[in-house]
Specification:
The chain is of the alpha/beta class. Helix content is 42%, strand content 15%. β5, α5 and β6 form a beta-alpha-beta unit. The protein is globular. The structure holds nicotinamide-adenine-dinucleotide (NAD).
Length: 258
């Protein structure tokens, strides 16, 4: 699928994997709408790629709709990448037998709201806009790539909330791709392993933490680069025969319990 002259939306596009996807989509000729909370980084990247920044919290449907409308106003929206996401680490129960020490339920709901419901909200609104596009020679009107995580399959101790949210993104892949097929819209899901992005924080301590993490990777023994993920994300969008699939991009890692 050719995205030249189209618009693309990348949620979480101001940082990490999303930012790498923004650069690659722009290099392939799309005008990219960077939909993120972080205005400073988002605006700088928009200027670099001659795109647009839209201040979006993916848990706010009005802001999701405004980003989609902004894209459609420029050119037909043919590509969406849902990369906005947050982590959370807490065990399901505490050590002292007190109910108050159990997993923070508001934190659980927040992770689900951003990573899972926010992803689905952008899918349903963006696909509605895509359904109005003229189809290409394959009958394709657009394509969507969602970011899940290997934590959807190998969730570690303390990852109940994060893995639940990412498992939901895996679970929606086939039924949503089936729903959207009638409109000529494809949807795929990418499951990163351990990727070197600001999600692990910045500074000396996080560099040491990341160096240690890389030792668990099968091969090559390092963290992945955001560009290595963006390459697969964009392939699922431009490859017209990719649909309804979940793809791990993880150097072969299988996460241990902790
Ligand atoms: N880095 C990894 O190792 C890794 C591994 C597996 C999965 N992932 C997933 O890949 C995606 C991208 O991760 P990353 O490592 O690039 O993270 P990142 O922290 O570098 O970027 C995430 C971006 O999402 C934005 N964001 C957060 N909450 C938002 C909200 N409510 N509305 C809009 N934007 C919001 C942040 O501002 C940030 O710019 C996430 O969904 C993450 O869960 C990352």
């Amino acid at each position: 699928m050719d995205i030249t002259g189209s618009t693309a939306i990348v949620t979480g596009g101001a940082s990490g994997i999303g930012a790498a996807a923004v650069r690659l989509l722009a290099a392939k000729g799309a005008t990219v709408v960077i939909a993120d909370l972080q205005a400073d980084k988002g605006e700088a990247l928009a200027e670099e790629v001659k795109g647009v920044f839209a201040q979006v919290d993916v848990t706010n449907t009005d802001q999701v709709k405004a980003a989609v409308d902004a894209a459609v106003a420029i050119a037909p929206l043919r590509a969406v990448v849902n990369s906005a996401g947050i982590g959370w680490a807490q065990r399901t129960i505490g050590r002292d037998g007190e109910y108050d020490s159990a997993h923070d339920l508001e934190a659980y709901k927040k992770v689900i709201a951003i990573n899972l419901i926010g992803t689905f909200d952008m899918v349903r609104i963006a696909a509605t806009a895509m359904s109005r596009n003229e189809p290409d020679e394959d009958g394709c009107r657009g394509a969507i790539a969602n970011l899940t995580s290997v934590a959807a399959f190998d969730g570690q101790i303390g990852q109940a909330a994060y893995s639940s949210s990412k498992g939901g993104v895996v679970g929606m892949t086939l039924p949503v791709a089936r729903d959207l097929s009638a409109a000529g819209i494809r949807l795929n899901t990418i499951a990163p392993g351990l990727i070197d992005t600001p999600i692990y924080g910045e500074g000396e301590a996080s560099e040491a933490f990341k160096a240690n993490l890389g030792q668990n990777v099968l091969f090559p023994k390092r963290l992945g680069k955001p560009e290595e993920l963006a390459s697969m994300v964009v392939e699922t969008i431009t490859n017209s025969y990719m649909n309804a699939e979940v793809i791990r991009v993880d150097g072969g890692i299988r996460m241990p319990p902790k």
